[in-house]
Design brief:
By secondary structure, the chain is mainly alpha-helical. It has one domain: EF-hand (Recoverin, domain 1). Helix content is 54%, strand content 5%. A two-stranded antiparallel ribbon has the order 1-2. Strands 3-4 form a two-stranded antiparallel ribbon. α2 crosses α3. The N terminus is likely disordered.
């Protein structure tokens, strides 16, 4: 059966290393200071432990799964480290998602329910079927869907998953018709980074 799903040599390696980066011009000095504080060894990169610590110092605890997904999203690799440019983009991206989450968490409970999640996802430009929304709630609700609500860190994970998979699908759906053809390897390379983050 090995011949049915041939290896494709033309794929970019999602597990490749990173090229050192610099802070974008005009980066807020507090972002630079936060990165430098997290970069304890002065390597010019911060790893997943350092990133989790840096994000947690901003009054938000993120699981390693969320940290890894953030790192993948902002580097397009599973290198488990980010440089100054990626950190800056991540920092500002989190501010955007925090504002979006808070606009739907009107009772300030720290959670948004299924209907609020649907509206939040729609406001980001994604229209998903009720079946997909139910799967998202059961996947990202820390209680397996029992509370029918998700917290901020899981909201980030949910948004990154929807955004990332949608972008990967659009790469194959060049006609934007809602259909795409994937080889087995293409499918695995598309989905696995979101499963093993």
């Amino acid at each position: 059966m090995a011949g049915v799903y041939p290896a494709q040599a033309s794929h970019a390696n999602p597990f490749a290393g990173l090229i050192p980066s610099t802070f974008p011009p005009g980066t807020d000095p507090s972002v630079v200071a936060c990165f430098q504080l997290a970069d304890a060894d002065g390597s010019g990169f911060i790893d997943d432990v350092e990133l989790q610590r840096a994000l947690s110092s901003c009054d938000q605890n993120f699981s390693f799964r969320t940290v890894h997904l953030l790192m993948y999203h902002f580097t397009n690799s599973n290198a488990r480290k980010i440089g100054p440019r990626e950190f800056t983009e991540l920092f500002y991206g989190l501010q955007h998602w925090r504002a979006k989450f808070e606009s739907f968490d009107q009772d300030r409970s720290g959670k948004i329910d299924a209907s609020e999640l649907r509206e939040a996802i729609r406001s980001l430009g994604y229209v998903l079927s009720p079946v997909v929304m139910d799967l998202l709630i059961s996947k990202f609700d820390k209680y397996g869907g029992a509370s029918q609500a998700i917290e901020y860190d899981n909201f980030i994970e949910c948004c990154l998953t929807v955004k990332g998979l949608t972008e990967k699908f659009k790469e194959k759906d060049s006609a934007l018709c809602g259909w795409a053809s994937f080889s087995y390897e293409d499918f695995m390379l598309t989905v696995l980074p979101f499963l093993i983050a």
